[in-house]
Amino acid sequence: MIVVKRIEELKQLIWEAKQVGARIGLVPTMGYFHAGHLSLMHRAKAENDRVVVSLFVNPTQFGPQEDLLSYPRDLERDRALAESVGVDWLFVPEVAEMYPAGYQTFVEVTELTKGLCGARRPGHFRGVATVVLKLFNIVAPDQAYFGEKDAQQLRVIKRMAVDLNLNVKVNGCPIVREADGLALSSRNIYLTPEQRQAALILSRLLNEAGRLIEAGERDAQSLRRRLVQTLATEPLATLDYLEIIASDTLQPLTRLQGEILIALAVKLGATRLIDNRVYQLAPGGEC
Ligand code: AMP
Q1: Closest Cα to atom 7 of ligand 1
Q2: Which atom of ligand 1 has the smallest separation from the CA of 148?
Q3: How far apart are CA 130 and CA 225, in angstroms?
Q4: pLDDT tens digits, residue range 102-158?
């Protein structure tokens, strides 16, 4: 595996690979790898001839009060993990390489970014869409891989790829969880042991929603009320959002039907965790 820091060097390596017909897979990340990241890399490896993993803590997607500076980093560990999966190129650009002096161009996906994390983190998806489009232009991948853990992000990137006629297939990959249900996240490292235990409330809520839907609940407001009550039983957790929405448009629902998404963000101390699950109901509302 080659660690590449310069855009021009990566473009050259990819150009050479494409000359001999190699299909290129891209996995964009912010590093501090866990099994969720590795699952994306494995899939990219299985479906392509060459795999690029980008590791870039993208400053334009962090708000001024957010954890850009304290975001966990461990390049040596990440390097070894990516190599163990068989990644070909680990792209680790400096901020000035991606955003040199004079940089002023941004991408906005307008509707899908209005709610959920987009509402709580102004400018976040503008930064995400911009850096991902830059990575797509640098790597020109045949396929790119994103986790369903970041459900809104996945929809935003898919929309951008359609709207801007990008020649890349955007794939969503299932959420990888700890044995006890907690979705893997680089930010889990911030949790105290008590908060780590309390963080189970996220997956518990999604499971409870599944049970209630299976038992016939079809009213979004009453489902939400029940879930918010359950959340209140965990004193260390505070609700940021809990949305019951159409999985494709992310628009709020009154009645549950079709493919629905329950997306939540919960704070444990200063740490904000997100999780989500898709529930498949018949168009008329039956399970
Ligand atoms: P990040 O480094 O947190 O920006 O994540 C990089 C990619 O890994 C994104 O596409 C995430 O959605 C994905 N990812 C993060 N956590 C998980 C997880 N637990 N399961 C699957 N994919 C994940």
Answers
A1: 29
A2: 12
A3: 37
A4: 999 999 999 999 999 999 999 999 999 999 999 999 999 999 999 999 999 999 999
